């Protein structure tokens, strides 16, 4: 996820032949492996830039290009958001990771004309600030939402699941960020896979299309606000947000989790 503004998504990726599925799986593996390795590499005292440089080299070694840098000239290979930052955090050298931080890493890339997106929040080291319950809620809710996603299901229904499950756990959702189609570009239709119920959205998921489903589960806020740097998002009411994301292929039955190797559900 880098931008979910309506109007930016134009195309829709539909898997029509084996080579397209292979292409989507290859780029999905690249972003998934990079995300998993970055999580394992992150240590207290490390700068976000050092972590980002590690991720950028991994993508390069896998033959992939950073999607944020390629599509938006984002100042980093990946988005690294810490504590009160929701998303699009710039991985700067003066942003130092500390024990107990709530860290989000979002990795998206292009490989041989195919694009994929995934991300995950985690507690760095010991959970001294009690963020783990929020992280677990985000992971669990994403799992439930994804396994309710199939061809013919209303997009709004998935938003309702996410919002309802968050409320059950005492959390809110960020209502102006969304999952999106992904495949031949970073952001495609549908561009409005929200974390909340939109009764006016009558669109349904289509068979053999590829989308990035993501959760934004919050302790206090309901809206993301852009900071002065033009990238970093924070909550309108403060607090913390956990995000998890998979790229999947929609089917008439269970979805294919293309980024499964990222290990965010482990």
Automatic annotation (TrEMBL):
EC annotation from Swiss-Prot or TrEMBL: 3.4.11.18
Known catalytic reactions: Release of N-terminal amino acids, preferentially methionine, from peptides and arylamides
A GO molecular-function annotation: initiator methionyl aminopeptidase activity
Cofactor note: Binds 2 divalent metal cations per subunit. Has a high-affinity and a low affinity metal-binding site. The true nature of the physiological cofactor is under debate. The enzyme is active with cobalt, zinc, manganese or divalent iron ions. Most likely, methionine aminopeptidases function as mononuclear Fe(2+)-metalloproteases under physiological conditions, and the catalytically relevant metal-binding site has been assigned to the histidine-containing high-affinity site.
Signal peptide boundaries: none
GO annotation (BP), single: proteolysis
InterPro entries documented for this protein: Creatinase/aminopeptidase-like, Pept_M24, Pept_M24_MAP, Pept_M24A_MAP1
Domain of life of the native organism: Bacteria
The entry's keywords: Aminopeptidase, Hydrolase, Metal-binding, Protease
List of residues binding a divalent metal cation 2: 117, 180, 214, 245
Domain Peptidase M24, chain residue ranges per copy: 22-252
Residues annotated for substrate binding in this entry: 88, 187
TM spans (from-to): none
Cofactor list: Co(2+); Zn(2+); Mn(2+); Fe(2+)
Family matches, as Pfam families: Peptidase_M24 (PF00557)
Subunit record text: Monomer.
NCBIfam families xref list: met_pdase_I
Record function comment: Removes the N-terminal methionine from nascent proteins. The N-terminal methionine is often cleaved when the second residue in the primary sequence is small and uncharged (Met-Ala-, Cys, Gly, Pro, Ser, Thr, or Val). Requires deformylation of the N(alpha)-formylated initiator methionine before it can be hydrolyzed.
PANTHER family documented for this protein: METHIONINE AMINOPEPTIDASE, METHIONINE AMINOPEPTIDASE 2
Stored HAMAP family: MetAP_1
Family from the record: Belongs to the peptidase M24A family. Methionine aminopeptidase type 1 subfamily.
Protein name per Swiss-Prot or TrEMBL: Methionine aminopeptidase
Originating organism: Microscilla marina ATCC 23134
Lineage of origin: Bacteria, Pseudomonadati, Bacteroidota, Cytophagia, Cytophagales
Chain's gene name: map
């Amino acid at each position: 996820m880098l931008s979910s503004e309506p109007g930016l998504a134009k195309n829709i990726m539909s898997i029509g032949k084996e080579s397209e599925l292979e292409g989507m799986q290859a780029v999905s593996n690249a972003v998934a492996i990079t995300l998993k390795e970055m999580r394992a590499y992150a240590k207290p005292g490390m700068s976000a830039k050092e972590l980002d440089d590690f991720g950028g080299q991994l993508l390069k070694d896998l033959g992939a290009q950073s999607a944020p840098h390629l599509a938006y000239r984002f100042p980093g290979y990946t988005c690294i958001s810490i504590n009160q930052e929701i998303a699009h955090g710039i991985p700067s050298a003066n942003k130092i990771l500390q024990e107990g931080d709530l860290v989000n890493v979002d990795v998206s890339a292009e490989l041989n004309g195919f694009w994929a997106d995934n991300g995950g929040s985690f507690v760095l080291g010991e959970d001294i600030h009690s963020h783990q319950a929020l992280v677990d809620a985000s992971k669990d809710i994403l799992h439930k939402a994804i396994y309710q996603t199939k061809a013919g299901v209303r997009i709004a229904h998935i938003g309702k699941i996410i919002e309802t499950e968050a409320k059950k756990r005492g959390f809110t959702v960020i209502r102006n960020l969304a999952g999106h189609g992904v495949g031949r570009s970073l952001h495609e239709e549908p561009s409005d896979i929200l974390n909340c119920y939109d009764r006016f959205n009558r669109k349904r998921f289509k068979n053999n299309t590829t989308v990035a489903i993501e959760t934004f589960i919050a302790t206090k806020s309901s809206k993301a606000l852009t900071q002065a740097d033009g990238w970093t998002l924070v909550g309108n009411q403060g607090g913390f947000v956990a995000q998890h994301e998979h790229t999947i292929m929609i089917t008439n039955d269970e979805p294919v989790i293309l980024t499964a190797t990222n290990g965010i559900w482990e």
